[in-house]
Amino acid sequence: MATNKDWRERLTPFDSELFLMVESLTGCECVPKNDGDGYTFTADYEKHKKEPNWILALWDAIEGRLGDRLLDLEDNPDVHCLFVRVKFSEQEYPSITRLDRDCKENPNAGEIYCRSLEEIRAVQVKRENAGKLLAFVGNGEMEIERCPEGKATFHFRNAGFSVWNHAPEFSYIIYRKPGQFLVMDRAEFEKQYERK
């Protein structure tokens, strides 16, 4: 890999999901730091310091998720956290255009579509719509493949869920209710709805 590449670009979607998992378990922000050929982070278990089984479960979850990419995993009971060192993935992933990952969702950022007297708000996933998608959903990131014919995918989370939704280029994201959005295939959407 190129040495002048920013180390954050070497983080994969798998790494992002690892950070989200640690944050959801610990209730504390998981912040990776560059470590040359890898990165480090701490998993704070202050809230569970008197629960050895919980700490062991956290240890097992991190160890199991990382497999042979795990370089070091140590318990630091003095500060109530696990210290984790991880090797960067050798697999090349598509570059990711990062937007502010969280902001207040704004359903009015979507256009109005209708069918048989039903009106909805939706935004089509296009790379030039990245800002509008972020405003519409309130979080997310656009992933664009490096190859010339590369596709774009918009990744986002519905409120209250740590699971990522993956909306391929040209699909539509539909507003259902506050914090809840649905991804619909382009052909199916355009068969059912037309722009108002």
How would you portray this structure in words?
The chain folds into two domains: 7-87; 95-195, no CATH class. It starts with 12 loop residues before the first helix and ends with a strand. It is an alpha+beta fold. It is built from four helices and 13 strands. The model has no long low-confidence stretch (mean pLDDT 86). The chain has a five-stranded antiparallel sheet. The protein has helices at residues 13-26, 52-66, 130-137, 186-192, and strands at residues 33-34, 38-44, 70-76, 81-87, 95-97, 111-115, 118-124, 141-144, 152-157, 164-168, 172-177, 180-184, 194-195.
Characteristics:
five-stranded antiparallel sheet, single chain, four-stranded antiparallel sheet, about 200 residues, 2 domains, 4 helices, alpha+beta, 13 strands
